[in-house]
Amino acid sequence: MKGTRFPAVDGLRVIAAVAVVISQVGLHTHAPFAGVVSRLDVGWAIFCALSGFLLYRPHVLAWFSGTLPPLTLPYLRSRALRILPTLLVAVLLSIAFVPHPATTYLRWAALTPLPFYLLLPGLGRLLTGYERPTRRSVRWRLLVLVALTVLGPVWMAVVTATDNPAAGLWLPGYLGWYAVGMGMALWQVARATGRLGPSTLDTLTRIPGTLWGIAIALLLIAATPIAGPYDHSTPTPAQALVKSLLYTLAVACALFPVLTPTASTVRVLGGRPAQVAAPLAYGVVVYQFVVLGLLDGPFAVQLPLTLLAAGTLAAISYRLLERPLGKKRPTAKTESSATSPSSSAAR
Q1: What's the number of CA atoms in the CB half-sphere (13 Å) around residue 271?
Q2: Full residue range of the structural domain in which residue 260 is found
Q3: Region (Disordered) spans which residues (predicted)?
Q4: Is residue 53 part of a domain?
Q5: Is residue 106 part of a domain?
Q6: Could you tell me the pTM of the whole model?
Q7: Secondary structure of residue 320 in the 3-state scheme
Q8: Euclidean distance between CA atoms 314 and 32, whole angstroms
């Protein structure tokens, strides 16, 4: 398993970033195809699932190899250096230059992943400890993670029914998306090491186009009123549940083919353009809030300008801030000095 890399993840990360930008520009303008544009905020769910996959996988590898899990403090330091400096720069730029600072949106961008990052070391130990990684123990943990995917839709329905929209930003509302990635990390390692035998899931990895077609179909369903309004208006509890559930299923279909990608999948999602753009994805998502605070005009004008300006800021930030700090970040080593090959991809 050492040396394993998931090149198609790069392209999926870029797609998620562009989708988030399109949806945010749509919220600021009268976008055409408002339903489809608004549902591209599914990019947030893709980011969550990718984080769950890449950050939980080292725990699974340690469990299967009989070594100790990743050290908590180096892991937390790495996450902090990856997220907080860029976010701080964006906040300062917003306060300095934006007439109505986008600090609220930036706070959302920070608060969504941070609780999961803090919870992951304990959750990783809970789900990989106490017994050997047999086929039975792997299946039991997969069932737990599948159960967690249901938590998000139910939580969103409950907080909507109780008129508590602020609670919709709490971790339970998004934990299901992280659980999708975590479950796939466990399945991928278990399948690669023979803890799980062949199944229908192996066939699905060989037909990525079908799974991506299903993901698109699910988003088109979500683009109808069944999943609620297209802006920040309050949905009904049923709409909140349906939207979260459709996003969970769509993300699962989008992510699964990149675990054991076909050659064509690697060419499309793991080529040189994706490799260059992937490190900028986080910066694009963060800096877009600053750019949108400075722009005005129709969707067709704001979208390319936002992508260009946010991409430029992200490239500068990556070159001068993120990459230098990344060289100082500790690698995700286990306590026995075993290194997970996917830890660098999580950056």
Answers
A1: 7
A2: 8-328
A3: 326-347
A4: yes
A5: yes
A6: 0.91
A7: helix
A8: 27
Whether the CB-CB separation of 141 and 127 falls below 8 Å is answered with yes
Which secondary structure element, helix H or strand E, spans residue 105, and what is its range? helix 103-111
Listed residue (309, 10, 29, 60) closest to 187, CA to CA:
60
How far from 149 is each of 105, 250, 264, CA to CA, in Å? 25, 12, 30
Q: Tell me which residue of 294, 270, 224, 252 sits closest to 39, measured CA to CA.
A: 224
Q: Is residue 43 part of a domain?
A: yes
Neighbour count for residue 201 (Cβ, 10 Å):
14
Average pLDDT, the chain: 88
Q: Name the region of 129 (left: φ>0; alpha: ψ -120 to 50; beta: rest).
A: beta
Rounded to an integer, what distance in angstroms lies between the CA atom of residue 278 and that of residue 206?
A: 24
β-strand partners of 333: 339
Domain count, the chain: 1
Question: Which residues on neighbouring strands pair with residue 334, listed in sequence order?
Answer: 70
- Rounded distance, CA 183 to CA 304, Å? 36
- Domain presence at residue 240: yes
Please give the pLDDT value at position 111. 65
CA distance 314 to 331: 23
Looking at residues 171-198, what average pLDDT do you find?
92
Please return the burial class of 100, using the count of CB atoms within 10 Å of its CB with bins 0-12, 13-18 and 19+.
Answer: exposed
- Answer yes or no: are the C-beta atoms of 201 and 211 closer than 8 Å: no
- The residues facing 70 across adjacent strands are 334
